[in-house]
Write a structure and sequence with these properties.
- By secondary structure, this protein is α+β, with helices and mostly antiparallel strands.
- The chain has helices at residues 30-35, 109-118, and strands at residues 3-6, 9-12, 16-20, 41-43, 46-47, 54-55, 66-70, 82-83, 120-123, 135-138.
- The strands form four sheets. A three-stranded antiparallel beta sheet has the order 1-2-8, with no helix packed on it. A three-stranded antiparallel beta sheet has the order 3-7-4, with no helix packed on it. Strands 5-6 form a two-stranded antiparallel ribbon.
- The longest helix is centred in the last third of the chain and has 10 residues, at 109-118.
């Protein structure tokens, strides 16, 4: 999720992946499913205490079940996760529950900067405690809680 764009290119600062596990099966997401092994961390999942088997369909704790694992658990992952050039295209993965930004949009450089800095998104049930209906919100650079300094261009 977290990347740095600098003068020489782009790199991932996490060194890993963070994926939802709700309804996870090997058939649906084989690489994520196979990444769940020693060295990965499961969050908010229900498991059988006798066998250790995880019930990925159980939402009794929350629908926001996750797994974190190192990039090296994914076949063909680029390690280190960096490129020595600048991207030609940028994809902003947003949670727009109200249709403000069309699902697929070709934006100008100024539009991309505006949407990234403003971080328009939505809080949705299953990922935010106490949220039952979508709520519009803003999260600067889609990561405001993690920013040390005010974002600027």
């Amino acid at each position: 999720d977290e990347h740095v764009w600098h003068a020489k290119g782009v790199f991932n600062i996490e060194g890993g992946c963070y994926a939802k596990t709700i309804g996870l099966t090997r058939e649906k997401e084989p690489e994520i499913y196979d990444a769940i092994r020693f060295g990965s961390i499961l969050e908010n999942v229900v498991f059988d205490e006798q066998t250790g088997a995880v019930d990925y369909d159980n939402v009794s704790i929350t629908e926001n079940t996750r797994v974190a694992y190192p990039l090296k658990f994914i076949p063909n992952a680029r390690i280190p996760a960096k490129v020595e050039h600048h991207p030609k295209q940028i994809i902003l993965l947003t949670c727009d529950a109200f249709g403000i930004l069309p699902p697929v949009s070709k934006l100008t450089q100024d539009q991309v900067m505006y949407h990234f800095i403003s971080g328009y998104t939505a809080k949705v049930a299953g990922t935010e405690e106490g949220v039952t209906e979508p709520e519009a919100t803003f999260s600067a650079c889609f990561g405001a809680p993690f920013l040390v300094w005010h974002p600027s261009v």
